[in-house]
Design goal:
mainly beta; 3-stranded antiparallel beta sheet; 3 strands
Length: 79
């Protein structure tokens, strides 16, 4: 069973409640009888397995794949 976070709009009381998927969300604060809201959290995404590269989920420095130029070489000019 998932655990949901709730917060009261009136007194800002926060608590967790274990509920089944098919249960209705709670609506009344147990402390002050104010209106509750369910807090939604973001879920992290992890790239694991043989179908992903190590660099798929990381920000690079921007230098990967760029060729190093020797100091005496001039950049290639397009005519």
């Amino acid at each position: 069973m998932p655990v949901y976070d709730y917060e009261c709009n009136l007194c800002n009381f926060r608590f967790e409640k274990r509920q089944r998927f098919d249960e209705e969300p709670l609506a009344i604060c147990p402390k002050c009888q104010g209106k509750l809201r369910r807090i939604i959290h973001s879920t992290p995404v992890l790239f694991k397995g043989s179908g992903f590269y190590v660099t798929d989920s990381r920000k690079g420095t921007g230098t990967e794949g760029t060729a190093e130029r020797k100091p005496d070489q001039k950049p290639h000019q397009v005519k």
